[in-house]
Amino acid sequence: MKAQLGITDALASCHTATVAGYVIEGHVPAGDITRLLAERPDALGLSVPDMPIGSPGMQMGDNTEPFTTLLIQPDGSSEMFAHHG
Where exactly are the structural domains of the chain? Predict the structure, then answer.
Protein backbone atom coordinates (compact mmCIF):
# COMPACT_ATOMS: atom_id res chain seq x y z
CA MET A 1 0.00 0.00 0.00
CA LYS A 2 2.79 2.44 0.89
CA ALA A 3 4.46 2.03 -2.51
CA GLN A 4 1.14 2.46 -4.33
CA LEU A 5 0.62 5.75 -2.47
CA GLY A 6 4.12 7.03 -3.27
CA ILE A 7 5.75 6.45 0.12
CA THR A 8 9.43 5.64 -0.32
CA ASP A 9 11.48 3.77 2.26
CA ALA A 10 13.02 7.08 3.39
CA LEU A 11 9.55 8.49 4.15
CA ALA A 12 8.04 5.35 5.65
CA SER A 13 6.82 4.93 9.18
CA CYS A 14 4.47 2.60 11.02
CA HIS A 15 1.02 3.91 10.03
CA THR A 16 -0.44 4.92 6.66
CA ALA A 17 -3.74 6.69 6.12
CA THR A 18 -5.45 8.77 3.48
CA VAL A 19 -7.61 11.84 3.98
CA ALA A 20 -9.21 14.04 1.32
CA GLY A 21 -6.90 12.71 -1.39
CA TYR A 22 -3.68 13.04 0.65
CA VAL A 23 -1.55 10.33 2.24
CA ILE A 24 -0.60 10.70 5.90
CA GLU A 25 2.40 8.60 6.91
CA GLY A 26 3.46 8.08 10.50
CA HIS A 27 2.81 10.10 13.64
CA VAL A 28 1.81 13.38 11.94
CA PRO A 29 0.42 16.01 14.35
CA ALA A 30 -3.27 16.82 13.84
CA GLY A 31 -2.43 20.51 13.42
CA ASP A 32 -0.22 19.70 10.44
CA ILE A 33 -3.04 17.71 8.83
CA THR A 34 -5.46 20.59 9.46
CA ARG A 35 -3.02 23.00 7.82
CA LEU A 36 -2.54 20.64 4.84
CA LEU A 37 -6.29 20.46 4.29
CA ALA A 38 -6.68 24.25 4.60
CA GLU A 39 -3.80 25.08 2.22
CA ARG A 40 -4.43 22.20 -0.25
CA PRO A 41 -0.92 22.18 -1.79
CA ASP A 42 -0.16 20.16 -4.92
CA ALA A 43 1.40 17.30 -2.99
CA LEU A 44 0.97 13.62 -2.17
CA GLY A 45 0.69 14.27 1.56
CA LEU A 46 2.65 14.40 4.80
CA SER A 47 5.14 12.12 6.53
CA VAL A 48 6.89 11.92 9.88
CA PRO A 49 9.45 9.19 9.17
CA ASP A 50 10.34 6.72 11.89
CA MET A 51 8.65 7.14 15.28
CA PRO A 52 10.21 10.14 17.05
CA ILE A 53 9.73 10.41 20.80
CA GLY A 54 7.22 13.12 21.57
CA SER A 55 5.32 12.87 18.29
CA PRO A 56 1.58 12.11 18.64
CA GLY A 57 1.18 8.65 20.14
CA MET A 58 4.86 8.44 21.04
CA GLN A 59 4.82 10.49 24.25
CA MET A 60 7.21 9.31 26.95
CA GLY A 61 6.66 11.74 29.81
CA ASP A 62 8.80 14.84 29.39
CA ASN A 63 11.24 13.00 27.11
CA THR A 64 10.97 14.44 23.58
CA GLU A 65 13.11 14.84 20.51
CA PRO A 66 12.72 17.39 17.73
CA PHE A 67 11.08 16.09 14.56
CA THR A 68 10.06 17.39 11.18
CA THR A 69 6.85 16.82 9.26
CA LEU A 70 7.69 16.45 5.58
CA LEU A 71 5.52 17.50 2.63
CA ILE A 72 5.70 14.75 0.01
CA GLN A 73 5.88 16.19 -3.50
CA PRO A 74 4.21 14.52 -6.50
CA ASP A 75 7.65 13.46 -7.82
CA GLY A 76 8.42 11.64 -4.53
CA SER A 77 10.80 14.25 -3.17
CA SER A 78 10.04 15.97 0.12
CA GLU A 79 10.53 19.27 1.89
CA MET A 80 9.99 20.54 5.40
CA PHE A 81 6.35 21.33 6.16
CA ALA A 82 6.67 21.89 9.92
CA HIS A 83 9.28 21.46 12.62
CA HIS A 84 8.35 20.40 16.14
CA GLY A 85 10.33 20.53 19.37
Answer: 2-84
Q: Using CA atoms, how far apart are residues 17 and 26, in angstroms rounded to an integer?
A: 9
Q: What is the pTM of this model?
A: 0.90
Mean pLDDT for the stretch of residues 53-58: 72
Cα–Cα distance for residue pair 7/15, rounded to 1 Å: 11
Q: In angstroms, rounded to a whole number, what is the distance separating the alpha carbons of residues 69 and 47?
A: 6
Sheet strand arrangement including 16-19:
16-19, 22-26, 45-48, 67-72, 78-84
Residue 82 forms beta bridges with which residues?
69
